Amino acid sequence: MNPRLHTSLCDLAGIEVPIVQTGMGWVAGPRLVSATANAGALGILASATMDFAQLRAAVAEVTSRTTRPFGVNLRADAHDIDERIALVIDQGVRVASFAQAPKEALIARLQQAGVKVIPSIGAKRHAEKVLAWGVDAVLVQGGEGGGHTGSVPTTILLPQVVDAVAGRVPVIAAGGFFDGRGLVAALAYGAAGIAMGTRFLLTSDSAVPQAVKDVYLGTSVTETTVTTQVDGVPHRVLNTALIDQLESGRGKLLALPRAAANALRFRNLTGIPLRQMLREGLAMRAAGELSWTQTLMAANTPMLLKAALVDGKVDSGVMASGQVVGVIDDLPSCRELIERIIAEAEATLAGLAGKEP
Question: How far apart (Å, rounded) are the C-alpha atoms in residues 247 and 244?
Answer without folding.
Answer: 5
